[in-house]
Amino acid sequence: MRIACGYPSDENDEDKLGRILLEQGIITREQLKQALALKQTTKENLGRLLIDLGFVSEQDLLAAYVQLRQALALQQTTAEKLRQLLVDLGFASEQDALATYAQQLDVPIYDPAKIVPDPAVRKVIPDIFAQRYQLVPLRRNGNKLLVAMVDPTNIFALDDLRLTTGFEIEPILASVDDINEIRKEYAIQDIRPQLGEDEEA
């Protein structure tokens, strides 16, 4: 039996619905790709295709649709991106949301176990830029600067960074918490030399 509630037919909303289903682990990326490919030939609604292919149940799709409506309504009153709103509303975990977003952008995710920030690059980016764009420099490799960013798609930030630093920017996706933790670590590194000077005095 089909639920009477209509699913989004706008392509932009359909993309967002697919994102919610991905972030909640209800469908896989390959399943979404298959449904989207079929949509190109059938022009059928994405939600209906996902059900017909057996990838989601009516109930799961309806729940995701309701969550999308709530998130979009809240987005009208805030500057937060949809991805963060889904996390804030409890519809997706931050890690799942980041993983899905990273796949969509084809960029790596910051992993503190694999990438150790280098305090030597801390001041390469002025604090005003780092705070405005929610980013922090991680490491330098020749003329390339690895930068952790909340939004690696922000072309204004990338252009500003290139002009300001003179480096080629390699963005890496990071959460707000990751950015704040790296900044705290850099601040501690700044304080340590001062403490040593005070002890010698």
Can you tell me about this structure?
This protein is mainly α. It has two domains: 11-105, no CATH class; 119-200, Type II secretion system, protein E, N-terminal domain (GMP Synthetase, Chain A, domain 3), CATH 3.30.300. It has helices spanning 11-23, 29-42, 46-52, 58-75, 82-88, 94-105, 127-133, 155-165, 176-200, and strands at residues 135-141, 144-149, 168-173. Strands 1-2-3 form a three-stranded mixed sheet. β2 (144-149), α8 (155-165) and β3 form a beta-alpha-beta unit. α1 packs across α4 (58-75), α1 (11-23) packs across α6 (94-105) and α5 runs antiparallel to α6. It is elongated, with a radius of gyration of 21 Å. The relative contact order is 0.10.
Brief sketch in words of this structure:
This protein has helices at residues 11-23, 29-42, 46-52, 58-75, 82-88, 94-105, 127-133, 155-165, 176-200, and strands spanning 135-141, 144-149, 168-173. The chain is mostly helical.
Any descriptors?
disordered N terminus; 2 domains; elongated; 57% helix; 201 residues; mainly alpha; GMP Synthetase, Chain A, domain 3; 3-stranded mixed sheet
Straight-line distance between termini: 80 Å
* Helix percent band: 55-70%
**Beta-strand percent range:** 5-15%
What does the average pLDDT come to? 81
Number of strands: 3
Low-pLDDT ranges: 1-9, 192-199
What can be said about the biggest beta sheet?
3 strands, mixed
Which class of secondary structure composition applies to the elements? mainly alpha
One letter per element, helices H and strands E, the order comes to: HHHHHHHEEHEH
Spatial arrangement of strands, main beta sheet: 1-2-3
Morphology call: elongated
Taking all Cα atoms into account, the compactness measure Rg is 21 Å
DSSP helical segment count: 9
What is the count of structural domains?
2
